Amino acid sequence: MASPTSPTVDRAATNGSVDEDAVPGEDSSEVTKLFAERLQAWKHAVAYLEDYITATEKTNHAHGKEYERVLKTVKDPLKEGHHFDQALGGIAGMFENIRSNTQGISNQHYETAKQLKGQVLPTFERLHTEIKNKSKELSKGAGKQSKAVDKARALTQKHIEHLGTHTASFDSTGGRMTANDDPYVIQRGVLYRLNKQVQEENNNRQDLISVQNSFAQFEAHVIQTIQHGLAQFLQVISTQCDQTKAMYGDMVGASQGIPLDFEWNGFVQRNNTILIDPNAPARSVSNITFPNQDHRATKPIIAGSLERKGKIMRGYDTNFYVVTPSKFLHEYKTDDNFAKDPVPEMSLYLPDCLVGAINGQKFNVKGKDVSKGKLGNSFSMSHELAFKAHTPDAALTWHKAISDACGKLTGELPESSTPTSPVAGKTSPGGSVAGDAKHPAPLQTEGLSKTNSVTSPGTATTTPGTTATTAATPASAAAPASGVAGEPGKY
């Protein structure tokens, strides 16, 4: 047997689309971690201001000597300082201004401490709490969505590896495998899970874009609150001497000179390779490729809709059927891969089945439903299934595709629309001869095995010791390649 080769995939872009990996190697939580770290930076920046105001209030009790403690609260560089623009006019420049002016304040009045503690400090405490709540909102929202993306990607990768295992064993076993291991079935499962993964990725992407957009507004609010708090601080200090007032006015002027988008624009520019581009297109399953996607075992021999007679109501129901290279006849409710997990409603292993002759648009197949696994197969019974195609040409095409994979054929015709008696001239199980030739008998498959000899008129004969028979179908059963021009093998 020739070694399997990977099919050639045309990766040329169509309508501007590009092929993408089914499971990207990127870290889905990278953006979330970046925003969490940035919130930490803002939280520490506000904490610096809280410490500063608190120390200022305490320093007013101890006058000039205690003011050295105020300077220590802003002495060290900002935590996560790389998140702030080091140029003048930003948050880092504002703290530098605070350090230089605080050094010049050596005398404070006692009554200033009461006003600082009751009016200015609560503003920054509330802002600190808002930043903490924003961090919790990020971890519970985008953080959880990132975990859902990672989980969906892991599940997709597992099924892609499962598909690779069974497509590889397809050639080594000659295509004989269980229905659940059919590469066609596994591939549809991959597409189902891939669709759920892409939905999770797109939902996560939209959440992160919303977070990203909200951060600009939130940071503007943070800076506005800082400006407001320091403005209150100025009002408290304005009653002190002219020198102290001038120094604090300089600090507030530095904070109010910060444009609302100054730090955000610098942050976006420094991290433009990590942040999400809102104008980039969302992922689509149609643009994604994965291993063995076009393996020949995943391509159906024929697929389309057929009508099958029910067991109870005896009416015909339309379902989607497919004959795979693994020689299975699978039944689905629809051909939709995304509405629900596309598990076959019924699966017939055609080499173990018996197919009858065509009667117009109708033909019968007798076999076991093997879709429930090995345990279910050992206890299941053979059933005679009556199919009806939409046209006689379609019936010929389906019959030929099924016959090519079937183990045994018979010339028995299926029941007509209003059966009243067996076909005239055929011998009944009791030895009598039917007299009505207008209503052919149902497919006689009871007791037929690979070693029995079938001698009914119009049926194929199997001699003892053989494993298959030659179809003795009527001349009209020679099916064309396709019943519909331009769509070979599909109805």
UniProtKB/TrEMBL annotation:
The keyword Ribonucleoprotein does not apply. Residues 300-409 form the PH domain. InterPro entries: AH/BAR_dom_sf (IPR027267), BAR_4 (IPR046868), PH-like_dom_sf (IPR011993), PH_domain (IPR001849), SLM1/RGC1-like_PH (IPR046869), Slm1_PH (IPR043453). SMART domains: PH (SM00233). SUPFAM superfamilies: BAR/IMD domain-like, PH domain-like. Keywords: Phosphoprotein. It comes from the Eukaryota. The keyword Phosphoprotein applies. Transmembrane segments: none annotated. Residues 453-485 have a biased composition (Low complexity). Residues 1-26, 410-491 are annotated as: Disordered. This is PH domain-containing protein.
